[in-house]
UniProtKB/TrEMBL annotation:
It comes from the Eukaryota. The keyword Transferase does not apply. This is SEFIR domain-containing protein. InterPro entries: IL-17_rcpt-like (IPR039465), SEFIR_dom (IPR013568). It is a single-pass type I membrane protein. Its main location: membrane.
Amino acid sequence: MCGDKQVFLREDARSTVGDMLSPALSLMVPHFIRSASFEKYIVAYFDDVCSEEDVPSPFNITLRYKLMKQFEELFFRILDTEKHEPGKVNHIDGLSEDKYHQCASGRALRDAIDTFHEYQLEHPQWFEDELLEQSKSSPEICDDAKTTINLIKYRVDDSTQVTNHLNTQDTDSTVDTSGLYVAEEL
C-alpha cells in the first residue's frame, strides 16, 4: 500500500481483529483524491519517539502535528477554532509543551513517552524484533512474546472531570472531558 512489502507484527497476530491500519487506509485513501476531503484527516506523532518520515506516505498530503510541541494547535484544529485572531492570540491552559504534564493525565503521558524513548535507546531494533515471518502460527507467536501486557480500562468518575479552559481576551468558554482511560501493565 505504501510501496513496500506488507509487514506482519506480533501485536497484529495476537489481536482478535488483526491489522487495523491496512483496512483503515483502504477506506481513507480514496478520499484523498478529492481535494476537499483530505482536510478531514490529521496526523499527529510524538516527536520524541518518531519523526515525520515515520508517517505512512499516503498521509503526506494531510496536516501533521508534532506532539506535544504542537498539541495546542492540534486542539484548536479539532475544535475548528482559530488560535490567531485579529488583535489577539487564544491559548488553552495546560496544553502547552511545558505545562501539559502538570496534571495527572499529562504526567502519565509524559512518563509513558519517556519510558518508550528509553526503551528505543536500549533496543534500537525494537520494531524489527516485532516483525513476524509469514510462516509463524499463532501459538509460536505467543511463545516468542517476551512480555504480554494486559490492559485494564478505568473510567474517571463524573465528579473527577478533566477540564481544559480556553482563555481569550473577548470570550471565556470551558471544554469538559470525562471518561479518561488508563492502561496498566500487570
